[in-house]
Specification:
By secondary structure, the chain is α+β, with helices and mostly antiparallel strands. It is built from eleven helices and six strands.
């Protein structure tokens, strides 16, 4: 990613975790951030200084700090820091308790715009569609990567997938199973997120999306299932056996 793309991605992660007004920079906030994402107060301050430098808003004291200015003017060093900072944010899925409270207190319209799958019981799926760029239309050989997520991580994981889908970083669409019981589920302790690709035989595209999922923190092996198998009613809990086109 370019520098501006890294910054945009970090801001999106922070919004996912904290919400628009959730992070206050208090001792408790920094303690929670360190425990859940391994990001120290010092790293967060440095991140803010990078933003201030780009906006020409550094204080006189910071401008006189030769060590700080040496870092800020070193494009390679700043890029490496941003890459590491983004990786830290993408290594976990936990949402701040503050954001959960803010979501619960939002208006009905806001709640409907970005519903939390763990709280939805009247619909089977929540869907997200690409809003940026283009992607080939789904063919008869379409399929999807399947991410099985523990209930406690469902909302945070889906928020990452939703944002990435809408930003055009994955395929054309994604969907997540809600808290509503599903007869095809293997267990009630996990829910599935589907990331669709247009053609399972286009290995380059399929693996490109898999690599992007790794960047989002989905580093464990996940299966890929064709739409043809789904439409044929082949599910693990029905004894259909191995169905994965890929397992990466």
């Amino acid at each position: 990613m370019r520098r501006n793309q890294l910054i945009t991605a970090i801001i999106a992660e922070m919004d996912r975790i904290w919400g628009e007004d959730g992070f206050d920079g208090t001792h408790d906030d920094y303690q929670w951030l360190q425990q859940n994402y391994g990001i120290s107060e010092e790293n967060d301050v440095l991140w803010q200084l990078i933003l201030e430098y780009d906006a020409n808003e550094l204080s006189d004291e910071d401008l006189e700090d030769q060590e700080l200015m040496g870092f800020l003017e070193d494009k390679k060093a700043v890029r490496q820091f941003l890459e590491c900072h983004l990786k830290s944010y993408r290594n976990a899925f936990t949402i701040s308790p503050k954001r959960k409270c803010l979501v619960d207190e939002t208006s009905q319209d806001s709640a409907l715009q970005y519903p939390r799958p763990s709280l939805v019981t009247d619909e089977d799926w929540i869907r997200a569609k690409r809003q940026t760029g283009t992607y080939p239309p789904r063919s008869e050989r379409g399929g999807k990567w399947l991410i099985f997520v523990p209930i406690e991580n469902l909302d945070g994981t889906w928020e990452k997938i939703r944002i990435a889908t809408e930003r055009g970083e994955l395929g054309a669409s994604s969907k997540v199973a809600t808290a509503k019981p599903n007869k095809n589920a293997v267990t009630n302790n996990q829910k599935v997120i589907c990331i669709y690709t247009y053609d399972w035989t286009d290995l380059e595209d399929v693996m490109k999306i898999r690599d992007q999922l790794r960047q989002l923190g989905i580093t464990w092996k996940i299966p890929y299932k064709s739409d043809e198998d789904t439409n044929a009613g082949k599910y693990a809990n029905r004894g259909s056996g191995k169905m994965s086109k890929y397992y990466e």
